[in-house]
Amino acid sequence: AANGGSDYSPLIIAHRGASAVEPEHTFLSYDQAIDDEADYIEIDLRRTADGELVAMHDETVDRTTDGKGLVEELTLKKVKALDAGEGQTVPTMEEILKRYGSEVHYYIETREDDKGKLVMEKQLLQLLKQYAIPQDQVILQSFSKDSINALHELDPELTLVQLLKKKDVEQLDREDLQAIKDIAIGVGIYAGILEESVVDLIQNHKLEIHAYYRGDEKEWTEKMLQYEVDGIFSDDPAFLANKMEIK
Ligand code: G3P
Ligand code: CA
Protein backbone atom coordinates (compact mmCIF):
# COMPACT_ATOMS: atom_id res chain seq x y z
CA ALA A 1 0.00 0.00 0.00
CA ALA A 2 1.35 3.37 -1.04
CA ASN A 3 0.09 5.72 1.60
CA GLY A 4 -1.74 3.33 3.85
CA GLY A 5 -4.84 4.16 5.81
CA SER A 6 -7.95 5.90 4.59
CA ASP A 7 -6.19 8.93 3.10
CA TYR A 8 -5.23 6.87 0.06
CA SER A 9 -5.87 8.83 -3.12
CA PRO A 10 -4.14 7.86 -6.36
CA LEU A 11 -3.19 10.36 -9.03
CA ILE A 12 -5.90 10.48 -11.67
CA ILE A 13 -4.22 10.56 -15.07
CA ALA A 14 -6.62 11.16 -17.94
CA HIS A 15 -5.51 8.57 -20.49
CA ARG A 16 -5.50 10.24 -23.94
CA GLY A 17 -7.83 12.75 -22.25
CA ALA A 18 -11.21 11.50 -21.09
CA SER A 19 -10.98 9.11 -24.03
CA ALA A 20 -13.95 6.93 -23.09
CA VAL A 21 -16.17 10.03 -23.23
CA GLU A 22 -14.75 12.07 -26.15
CA PRO A 23 -12.50 11.19 -29.12
CA GLU A 24 -9.01 10.44 -27.76
CA HIS A 25 -6.31 13.08 -28.05
CA THR A 26 -8.61 15.93 -29.04
CA PHE A 27 -9.25 19.18 -27.21
CA LEU A 28 -12.71 17.78 -26.43
CA SER A 29 -11.19 14.85 -24.53
CA TYR A 30 -8.65 17.02 -22.71
CA ASP A 31 -11.31 19.63 -21.80
CA GLN A 32 -13.56 16.87 -20.48
CA ALA A 33 -10.68 15.51 -18.37
CA ILE A 34 -10.07 18.96 -16.91
CA ASP A 35 -13.80 19.39 -16.16
CA ASP A 36 -13.71 16.02 -14.44
CA GLU A 37 -10.78 17.23 -12.32
CA ALA A 38 -8.16 14.79 -13.51
CA ASP A 39 -4.75 15.49 -11.97
CA TYR A 40 -2.87 14.96 -15.25
CA ILE A 41 -3.62 14.87 -18.95
CA GLU A 42 -1.83 12.00 -20.65
CA ILE A 43 -0.43 12.68 -24.11
CA ASP A 44 1.12 10.21 -26.56
CA LEU A 45 3.49 11.77 -29.06
CA ARG A 46 4.37 11.00 -32.68
CA ARG A 47 6.47 13.01 -35.10
CA THR A 48 5.25 14.00 -38.56
CA ALA A 49 7.31 13.74 -41.76
CA ASP A 50 8.18 17.43 -41.43
CA GLY A 51 9.18 17.13 -37.78
CA GLU A 52 6.16 18.37 -35.81
CA LEU A 53 5.16 16.64 -32.56
CA VAL A 54 1.49 15.64 -32.60
CA ALA A 55 -0.75 13.93 -30.05
CA MET A 56 -1.37 10.48 -31.47
CA HIS A 57 -1.14 7.02 -29.96
CA ASP A 58 -0.88 4.68 -32.94
CA GLU A 59 1.86 4.73 -35.55
CA THR A 60 -0.82 5.26 -38.20
CA VAL A 61 -3.71 7.71 -38.31
CA ASP A 62 -6.10 4.95 -39.42
CA ARG A 63 -7.92 4.11 -36.18
CA THR A 64 -8.44 7.59 -34.77
CA THR A 65 -9.01 9.72 -37.88
CA ASP A 66 -10.71 9.54 -41.27
CA GLY A 67 -7.32 9.25 -42.99
CA LYS A 68 -4.76 6.54 -43.66
CA GLY A 69 -1.01 6.16 -43.34
CA LEU A 70 1.96 6.38 -41.01
CA VAL A 71 2.18 9.61 -39.03
CA GLU A 72 5.90 9.67 -39.79
CA GLU A 73 5.16 9.75 -43.52
CA LEU A 74 2.53 12.49 -43.38
CA THR A 75 3.24 16.21 -43.30
CA LEU A 76 1.68 18.32 -40.57
CA LYS A 77 -0.57 19.88 -43.20
CA LYS A 78 -1.90 16.44 -44.16
CA VAL A 79 -2.40 15.45 -40.50
CA LYS A 80 -4.19 18.71 -39.69
CA ALA A 81 -6.60 18.14 -42.60
CA LEU A 82 -7.91 14.94 -40.93
CA ASP A 83 -10.99 14.59 -38.74
CA ALA A 84 -10.03 13.11 -35.37
CA GLY A 85 -13.70 12.75 -34.40
CA GLU A 86 -16.57 15.21 -33.93
CA GLY A 87 -14.86 17.57 -36.37
CA GLN A 88 -11.77 17.91 -34.19
CA THR A 89 -8.25 18.08 -35.60
CA VAL A 90 -5.19 16.21 -34.30
CA PRO A 91 -3.54 18.66 -31.87
CA THR A 92 0.16 19.41 -32.03
CA MET A 93 2.09 19.46 -28.77
CA GLU A 94 2.56 23.17 -29.30
CA GLU A 95 -1.19 23.79 -29.71
CA ILE A 96 -1.81 21.86 -26.50
CA LEU A 97 0.71 23.98 -24.58
CA LYS A 98 -0.73 27.16 -26.10
CA ARG A 99 -4.24 26.20 -25.05
CA TYR A 100 -3.64 24.95 -21.52
CA GLY A 101 -0.33 26.59 -20.56
CA SER A 102 0.49 26.07 -16.93
CA GLU A 103 -3.19 25.56 -15.99
CA VAL A 104 -2.86 21.77 -16.13
CA HIS A 105 -0.40 19.00 -15.36
CA TYR A 106 0.98 17.04 -18.29
CA TYR A 107 1.96 13.36 -18.38
CA ILE A 108 3.68 12.97 -21.75
CA GLU A 109 4.84 9.77 -23.41
CA THR A 110 7.87 9.80 -25.67
CA ARG A 111 8.55 7.09 -28.24
CA GLU A 112 11.32 6.08 -30.56
CA ASP A 113 10.53 6.58 -34.24
CA ASP A 114 9.62 3.61 -36.44
CA LYS A 115 13.33 2.87 -36.97
CA GLY A 116 14.10 2.93 -33.25
CA LYS A 117 15.72 6.37 -33.31
CA LEU A 118 15.28 9.00 -30.60
CA VAL A 119 13.76 11.98 -32.37
CA MET A 120 11.56 13.91 -29.96
CA GLU A 121 13.25 14.38 -26.58
CA LYS A 122 15.11 17.66 -27.23
CA GLN A 123 12.23 19.13 -29.17
CA LEU A 124 9.73 18.33 -26.43
CA LEU A 125 11.88 19.86 -23.68
CA GLN A 126 12.39 22.93 -25.84
CA LEU A 127 8.62 23.36 -26.22
CA LEU A 128 7.98 22.93 -22.49
CA LYS A 129 10.61 25.57 -21.85
CA GLN A 130 9.27 27.91 -24.51
CA TYR A 131 5.79 27.79 -22.93
CA ALA A 132 7.26 28.15 -19.43
CA ILE A 133 5.61 25.03 -18.04
CA PRO A 134 6.90 24.53 -14.48
CA GLN A 135 8.83 21.29 -14.14
CA ASP A 136 6.71 20.12 -11.24
CA GLN A 137 3.69 20.09 -13.56
CA VAL A 138 5.20 17.60 -15.96
CA ILE A 139 5.83 13.86 -15.86
CA LEU A 140 7.53 12.25 -18.83
CA GLN A 141 7.08 8.54 -19.50
CA SER A 142 8.36 6.01 -22.01
CA PHE A 143 8.59 2.30 -22.70
CA SER A 144 11.97 3.13 -24.25
CA LYS A 145 14.80 2.97 -21.71
CA ASP A 146 16.94 4.90 -24.20
CA SER A 147 14.41 7.69 -24.30
CA ILE A 148 14.20 7.86 -20.50
CA ASN A 149 18.00 7.91 -20.27
CA ALA A 150 18.24 10.60 -22.94
CA LEU A 151 15.70 12.78 -21.12
CA HIS A 152 17.57 12.34 -17.86
CA GLU A 153 20.83 13.32 -19.52
CA LEU A 154 19.27 16.39 -21.09
CA ASP A 155 17.91 17.46 -17.70
CA PRO A 156 18.49 15.45 -14.50
CA GLU A 157 15.70 17.39 -12.73
CA LEU A 158 12.92 15.95 -14.90
CA THR A 159 10.24 13.76 -13.33
CA LEU A 160 10.35 10.48 -15.23
CA VAL A 161 8.36 7.24 -15.25
CA GLN A 162 9.63 4.06 -16.87
CA LEU A 163 6.84 2.13 -18.57
CA LEU A 164 7.35 -1.62 -18.32
CA LYS A 165 6.22 -4.44 -20.59
CA LYS A 166 5.02 -7.79 -19.28
CA LYS A 167 8.42 -9.38 -19.92
CA ASP A 168 10.21 -6.65 -17.90
CA VAL A 169 7.79 -7.08 -15.00
CA GLU A 170 8.22 -10.86 -14.91
CA GLN A 171 11.99 -10.49 -14.65
CA LEU A 172 12.02 -7.46 -12.39
CA ASP A 173 14.71 -7.71 -9.71
CA ARG A 174 16.30 -5.41 -7.17
CA GLU A 175 19.03 -4.38 -9.58
CA ASP A 176 16.52 -3.28 -12.22
CA LEU A 177 14.54 -1.38 -9.63
CA GLN A 178 17.66 0.37 -8.40
CA ALA A 179 18.62 1.34 -11.96
CA ILE A 180 15.14 2.76 -12.50
CA LYS A 181 15.20 4.55 -9.18
CA ASP A 182 18.45 6.27 -10.10
CA ILE A 183 16.60 8.39 -12.66
CA ALA A 184 12.82 7.86 -12.36
CA ILE A 185 10.13 8.32 -9.70
CA GLY A 186 8.21 5.24 -10.70
CA VAL A 187 7.03 2.68 -13.20
CA GLY A 188 3.93 2.27 -15.35
CA ILE A 189 2.49 -1.24 -15.65
CA TYR A 190 -0.58 -2.79 -17.29
CA ALA A 191 -3.21 -3.44 -14.61
CA GLY A 192 -4.06 -6.86 -16.01
CA ILE A 193 -0.67 -8.29 -15.02
CA LEU A 194 -0.32 -6.61 -11.63
CA GLU A 195 -0.13 -8.79 -8.56
CA GLU A 196 -0.07 -7.42 -5.04
CA SER A 197 3.43 -8.88 -4.56
CA VAL A 198 4.72 -6.84 -7.52
CA VAL A 199 3.07 -3.68 -6.18
CA ASP A 200 4.70 -4.28 -2.79
CA LEU A 201 8.11 -5.01 -4.33
CA ILE A 202 8.02 -1.76 -6.29
CA GLN A 203 6.63 0.39 -3.48
CA ASN A 204 9.10 -1.11 -1.00
CA HIS A 205 11.81 0.24 -3.29
CA LYS A 206 10.22 3.66 -2.86
CA LEU A 207 9.13 3.74 -6.45
CA GLU A 208 5.63 4.76 -7.47
CA ILE A 209 3.47 2.48 -9.52
CA HIS A 210 1.05 3.87 -12.09
CA ALA A 211 -1.37 1.36 -13.60
CA TYR A 212 -2.73 1.55 -17.13
CA TYR A 213 -5.51 -0.32 -18.89
CA ARG A 214 -6.20 -1.62 -22.36
CA GLY A 215 -9.81 -0.61 -22.70
CA ASP A 216 -10.58 -2.82 -19.66
CA GLU A 217 -10.69 -0.18 -16.94
CA LYS A 218 -14.01 -1.36 -15.49
CA GLU A 219 -12.59 -4.84 -14.97
CA TRP A 220 -9.51 -3.76 -12.98
CA THR A 221 -10.29 -0.50 -11.17
CA GLU A 222 -11.40 -2.03 -7.88
CA LYS A 223 -8.33 -4.25 -7.76
CA MET A 224 -6.03 -1.27 -8.42
CA LEU A 225 -7.69 0.73 -5.63
CA GLN A 226 -7.40 -2.25 -3.33
CA TYR A 227 -3.67 -2.56 -4.14
CA GLU A 228 -3.32 1.18 -3.53
CA VAL A 229 -1.32 1.88 -6.66
CA ASP A 230 0.01 5.44 -6.70
CA GLY A 231 -1.52 6.54 -9.98
CA ILE A 232 -4.13 5.34 -12.45
CA PHE A 233 -4.37 6.09 -16.16
CA SER A 234 -8.11 6.43 -16.60
CA ASP A 235 -10.13 6.73 -19.80
CA ASP A 236 -12.95 8.18 -17.70
CA PRO A 237 -11.70 10.25 -14.74
CA ALA A 238 -15.26 10.87 -13.48
CA PHE A 239 -15.81 7.10 -13.24
CA LEU A 240 -12.54 6.66 -11.35
CA ALA A 241 -13.26 9.57 -8.97
CA ASN A 242 -16.64 8.04 -8.24
CA LYS A 243 -15.08 4.63 -7.53
CA MET A 244 -12.55 6.28 -5.21
CA GLU A 245 -15.36 7.93 -3.26
CA ILE A 246 -17.31 4.75 -2.69
CA LYS A 247 -14.27 2.63 -1.89
O1 G3P B 1 1.27 5.61 -20.94
C1 G3P B 1 0.61 4.65 -20.18
C2 G3P B 1 -0.16 3.88 -21.15
O2 G3P B 1 -0.77 4.83 -21.96
C3 G3P B 1 0.74 3.00 -21.95
O3 G3P B 1 0.07 2.34 -22.91
O4 G3P B 1 -0.35 1.98 -25.27
O5 G3P B 1 -1.96 3.34 -23.94
O6 G3P B 1 0.27 4.27 -24.51
P1 G3P B 1 -0.51 3.04 -24.21
CA1 CA C 1 0.42 6.32 -23.42
TrEMBL record:
Species whose genome carries this gene: Terribacillus saccharophilus
Domain of life the protein comes from: Bacteria
Keywords on record: Signal
PANTHER family tied to this protein: GLYCEROPHOSPHODIESTER PHOSPHODIESTERASE (PTHR46211:SF7), GLYCEROPHOSPHORYL DIESTER PHOSPHODIESTERASE (PTHR46211)
PROSITE patterns, alphabetized: GP_PDE (PS51704), PROKAR_LIPOPROTEIN (PS51257)
InterPro entries reported in the protein's UniProt record: GP_PDE_dom, PLC-like_Pdiesterase_TIM-brl
Coiled-coil blocks: none
Protein name in the entry: GP-PDE domain-containing protein
Chain ranges of the GP-PDE domain: 10-244
